[in-house]
Amino acid sequence: MSLQGLRSARVTANKKPKGLLPRTFRDQIDAIAMAICLAIGLKFFLVEAYEIPTPSMQPTLMGSTAAGVHDRILVNKAAWLLRKPHRFDIAVFRYPHNRSQNYVKRIWGLGGEHLCIIGGNVYKIFDGDTRAQDRYECLAKPDRVQEGLWRSVHDKPASDKDERLWQAGSAARWNFGSEGITIEDTGRGARAVFAFLETNLLSNLYEHGYPASIVDKIALEAPRLEAGKRTVADLRWRMEIQPDEKTRQIEVSQRDIYTQGGNGPQLAHRSFRLTIDRQADDKAQARLEILEKPQGGAQAKVVASSQLTDLRLPTTRSFELAFVKVDGQLKASVDGRTFDPLEIHWKGRPLPVAQVRLELGVKGAKALRVLRNRLDRDIFYTNEKDHAGYVSEVRVPKGACWMLGDNTQNSADGRAWRTVTLRVSDQGKLLEPKSKEGHEITGNVRFHGSEAAWPPDPDENPVVVPGQGVMVLTDLWGEEHRIHASIHQYESLSRTENGLFVPEKYIIGRAFATFWPAVPWGQFRVGLIR
Hints:
This protein is mainly beta. The protein contains 5 helices and 37 strands.
């Protein structure tokens, strides 16, 4: 092309076509349209945001009206396109008994599994020919999940205020001062029981795990749930200790005293013990042990043990001692050195724990100091003994999951979901279940059976309209139906059944992050979800 021809081409290219929008304006419209399409595509196929309206997953996900905290979460909707849902994932799903609602829970049971709840833990049952041959495996949470599920119940520097938490033996001197606890062995060893009077430290108290700034508000949700309070035996006890040059031995132990029942050999109690023996030149060795005492047995016997050798027990600085019993395992660490975990086995059905005793023992010390004391408890699942209607044993169908909420005392989940079916005439009158007239309506049931509670709980179904002889039932698809019936008629003519599982096809995605920077207690509620 000649130079003149090139100039002509440039002129032609820069001319604005008549009757069309300017190119820059069209480009902006195209960009906006593309952004909208991408946003819609992300929302429906990849990532979507949700707000948590209820407290069923607290404190992992906050949805407290009392505290005024409602987390916003991001959900990966492509998480399970290439793989099956995993145990312990937090899933958002369409609620099978009201498919217009989305729920969020943690996956505990997978298709084909036989599970049960005993003593707050979830066990997988490997069925044998008889009940005595069944093998129970406590479902152990991965470390990343467990770290997010510990409920802090005591985390303070040791001080003079701690004296009420300890029952100290008379054979030693325990000095509770403003700068810690000082222990002196006067010749027969120094021992004390921790959490002696504060029994709530060893229970599944509803308020455990929340920051002090909102505990009082959270407690407003709890009064009707205290019937579900039980002893928790899965604990993490950590202490910051500074021994002196005279310290010969430090011992930390937990004793679980069992309720009786089951079909295996009866245990009076189990003891879990960490013993650190100091040798010359600050060297030490440590033993981690499990001891069992049968009913009527003369003494407890060691059934499992692990050791750490070549330890250094410093006297010029403090170190952390961690003692953990959780999910059928005993773990411990001394000054950063970690033991191999010990497995806790059962012969027959596991026994729930009736009482827990935590002890600290010291030998030889003249001025051993405890500078900080931390106690956490694990999540504790209540069952039908704690709440009417809750189940404690399930068989998960193929292609379904069993979902449980982290706020175990205040969660409508796979322990209690039920449906109700009513036969109703075309005029909305309640009929006999076996009647051939009318049609059936099925929906979720959370019925409190009273006209006094008005306005009703948002999740109540059906709802009684006071003074009108009318009930409103929301069906499986979220549609409301007015039914002419009294509470007495409803109770005598309704048919209810358990519906404890969520088909995998109803799962929308996996919650992976909180993104709303609310700061109700001075912390950002932003980060990855475990």
